[in-house]
């Protein structure tokens, strides 16, 4: 599953000396998924069904989240429709007072199930799009018939008037189809199009050389998004996550660590971002043992990179430090070998040469075949 970007896109909280409440929570109901996308950002080791929080445990988490101020709930996976109790869980979240967004490939959403989801008050659906035609989409998702099924689900969403965001995960193999992707978003009645270029975490890292776009593709897509934003203002909103290896500055990952959002894994582990478990020196609490409020405000993991006090130079003296919060901690670990380092995506980072080396090495030859993930 490619995670929704609203948390990444939201304005970072200012470092005020007090910890603000979280605005958004991503609930990864399950790691089970019928698709096997090469860009999946979930970790290499997935949780099995037996370890998943049960219905009552999830509903309790939703109540705790609402109590501490969470407004938006992104219900994700894996494929959340793989959970038989999906309708019950959405109902529990709605009753807790959360705005509910279902992040789905559409596989497993029958018309009857959608009726039930609508009846219990599901407020928004974010439907992933692997490609603009069946051949490409089914090859990328590793699931034959997935595109046709998705189009049927999109029609059912439109019929019911449920607000729709189309989440187009873009990379070397589909970036040149952006114009058609925009047309499809309009045809399907989406209100928002997320142009989410692949972030290389989790399983996606295995496919970095296969998925990395060219600089030419990247420049073109930025121009196309800017042009479409202006042309379709008031008709279709855009969220754009550009390919960060070609950026001059990093993004404020999660809007700043522990500032606006949190993630819960299928087994109840509470994380500041969905890749945080890759950072070996941090310990993460589980909702089965510790109340969410205590984890958000007091846990060592959430406090490790909050605000700006932890930063090294040149971040400490940089005017962007409360804009990007030093970038992504997981990427700093991955590329610089140190989660406390400046994100090497930053052109001011002493490790920025790693990015140029990777691009030179991975763009030198033909893109290799995909390595698909299987559960
Ligand atoms: Fe951001 Fe640090 Fe780079 Fe400044 S030096 S732009 S704060 S990552
Ligand atoms: Fe960016 Fe973890 S994925 S901080």
TrEMBL record:
Keywords: 4Fe-4S, Iron, Iron-sulfur, Metal-binding, Oxidoreductase, PQQ biosynthesis, S-adenosyl-L-methionine. One of its GO terms (molecular function) is S-adenosyl-L-methionine binding. It catalyses: [PQQ precursor protein] + S-adenosyl-L-methionine = E-Y cross-linked-[PQQ precursor protein] + 5'-deoxyadenosine + L-methionine + H(+). Residues 7-17 have a biased composition (Polar residues). Gene3D superfamilies: Aldolase class I. Binds 1 [4Fe-4S] cluster. The cluster is coordinated with 3 cysteines and an exchangeable S-adenosyl-L-methionine. It is an enzyme of class 1 (oxidoreductase). Its EC number is 1.21.98.4. Transmembrane segments: none annotated. Residues 1-20 are annotated as: Disordered. [4Fe-4S] cluster binds at residues 33, 37, 40. GO terms for biological process: molybdopterin cofactor biosynthetic process; pyrroloquinoline quinone biosynthetic process. Catalyzes the cross-linking of a glutamate residue and a tyrosine residue in the PqqA protein as part of the biosynthesis of pyrroloquinoline quinone (PQQ). This is PqqA peptide cyclase. It comes from Profundibacter amoris. The lineage of its organism: Bacteria, Pseudomonadati, Pseudomonadota, Alphaproteobacteria, Rhodobacterales.
């Amino acid at each position: 599953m490619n995670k929704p970007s609203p948390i990444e896109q939201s304005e970072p909280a200012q470092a005020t000396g007090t910890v603000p409440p979280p605005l958004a929570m991503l609930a990864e109901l399950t790691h089970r998924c019928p698709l096997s996308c090469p860009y999946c950002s979930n970790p290499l080791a997935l949780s099995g069904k037996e370890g998943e929080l049960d219905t009552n445990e999830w509903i309790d988490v939703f109540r705790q989240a609402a109590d501490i101020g969470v407004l938006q709930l992104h219900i994700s996976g894996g494929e959340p429709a793989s959970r038989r109790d999906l309708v019950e869980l959405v109902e529990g979240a709605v009753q807790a007072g959360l705005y509910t967004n279902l992040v789905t490939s559409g596989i497993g959403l029958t018309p009857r199930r959608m009726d039930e989801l609508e009846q219990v008050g599901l407020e928004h659906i974010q439907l992933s799009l692997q490609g603009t035609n069946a051949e490409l989409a089914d090859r990328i998702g590793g699931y034959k018939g997935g595109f046709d099924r998705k189009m049927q689900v999109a029609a059912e969403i439109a019929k019911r008037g449920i607000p729709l965001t189309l989440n187009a995960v873009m990379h070397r193999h589909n970036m040149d189809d952006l114009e058609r992707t925009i047309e499809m978003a309009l045809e399907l009645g989406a209100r928002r199009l997320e142009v989410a270029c692949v972030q290389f975490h989790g399983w996606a890292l295995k496919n970095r050389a296969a998925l990395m776009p060219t600089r030419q593709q990247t420049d073109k897509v930025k121009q196309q998004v800017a042009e479409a934003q202006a042309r379709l203002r008031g008709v279709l909103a855009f969220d754009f996550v550009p390919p960060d290896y070609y950026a001059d500055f990093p993004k404020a990952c999660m809007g700043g660590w522990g500032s606006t959002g949190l993630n819960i894994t299928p087994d109840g582990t509470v994380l500041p971002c969905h890749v945080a478990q890759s950072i070996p020196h941090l310990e993460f609490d589980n909702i089965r043992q510790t109340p969410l409020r205590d984890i958000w405000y007091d846990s060592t993991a959430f406090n490790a990179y909050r605000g700006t006090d932890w930063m090294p130079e040149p971040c400490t003296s940089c005017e962007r430090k409360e804009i990007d919060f030093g970038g992504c901690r997981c990427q700093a670990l991955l590329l610089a070998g140190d989660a406390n380092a400046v994100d090497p995506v930053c052109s001011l980072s002493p490790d920025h040469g790693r990015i140029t080396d990777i691009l030179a090495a991975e763009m030198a030859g033909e893109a290799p075949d995909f390595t698909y993930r299987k559960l």
